[in-house]
Amino acid sequence: MQEQVSIRAHFERFPATVKGAFVLRGADRDPHQVQIRSASVREVGGPPGRSLDLPPITLDVAPNLDLFVPFEFSITELGSGWYGLECDVAIDGRQETVSPGRRFTVPWPRASVRRGTIAVRKTLQVDDGPKVLIDQIDCGADSSRVLYSAEKPADLRLTADGSRVPVLEAAFEDERGRVSAYPLLKTHARLVIEVRGGRGPLELPLP
């Protein structure tokens, strides 16, 4: 279905707050009525988000015309993690949930996060499919990246000391894959990597 209304979010992150606006624009040649019923900030892979306390608003959105709905919220009570915005809207009465705008981080304490590269070079076997070679893990301040080689994209799941490590994004090109996830902490002692359809997990003691 052709997009009827474009809903984006532009914002700046300050030390204690996020300030910005939702930007609505008609994406076809017809006018549309848009109701923004609620908006929230939600951690990636986390439970339902925290409300932005944005009052419900109804807008008549015209083609090729930007309408701005400003917002501001505090991030001082958010834990370390990656967050995104969600809006419950109704476009001409049709309800949907949209996730406009880029994600932002509330950083982890610098001393708590692992950094550097962990060489792996171990293989995950897949039932009725090609194997997946885990090449290495790059550890950074706000994310970790699992680099692998395979004939086709692999659906990887990560757990550290029994707790799920949320995946942020995945990319694959020319038989090389990358899975970006939450950072690994210095307190983590063991990382487990599983692939959908795999015969068993890969368990890695963390140095």
Protein architecture, described:
With 207 residues, the chain is an all-beta fold. The protein is built from no helices and 18 strands. The strands form four sheets. Strands 3, 4, 5, 7, 8 and 9 form a six-stranded antiparallel sheet that branches. A five-stranded antiparallel sheet has the order 10-11-12-16-15, with no helix packed on it. Strands 14-13-17-18 form a four-stranded antiparallel sheet, with no helix packed on it. The radius of gyration is 21 Å and the shape is globular. The relative contact order is 0.15.
Topology, please?
Elements: E1 5-13, E2 17-26, E3 32-43, E4 50-51, E5 57-61, E6 66-74, E7 81-91, E8 94-98, E9 104-106, E10 116-124, E11 132-139, E12 144-149, E13 156-160, E14 163-164, E15 167-173, E16 176-181, E17 190-195, E18 202-205
Antiparallel strand pairs: 1-2, 2-6, 3-4, 3-5, 3-7, 7-8, 7-9, 10-11, 11-12, 12-16, 13-14, 13-17, 15-16, 17-18
Features of this protein?
Immunoglobulin-like, 57% strand, mainly beta, 2 domains, 0% helix, 207 residues
Largest sheet: 6 strands, antiparallel
If you consult CATH, what is the topology of the largest domain? Immunoglobulin-like
Tell me the domain tally.
Answer: 2
Q: Into which percent range does the helicity of residues fall?
A: under 10%
Secondary structure tally: strands: 18
The proportion of residues in beta strands is over 45%
Which CATH class of the largest domain is shown? Mainly Beta
H/E element string?
A: EEEEEEEEEEEEEEEEEE
What is the tally of helical segments? 0
Shape: globular
Gross CATH architecture of the largest domain: Sandwich
User: Which runs of at least 5 residues are low in confidence (pLDDT < 50)?
Assistant: none
Average pLDDT level: 95
**Spatial extent as radius of gyration:** 21 Å
Kindly, what is the distance between the CA atoms of the first and last residues, rounded to a whole number of angstroms?
Answer: 50 Å
- Structural classification: mainly beta
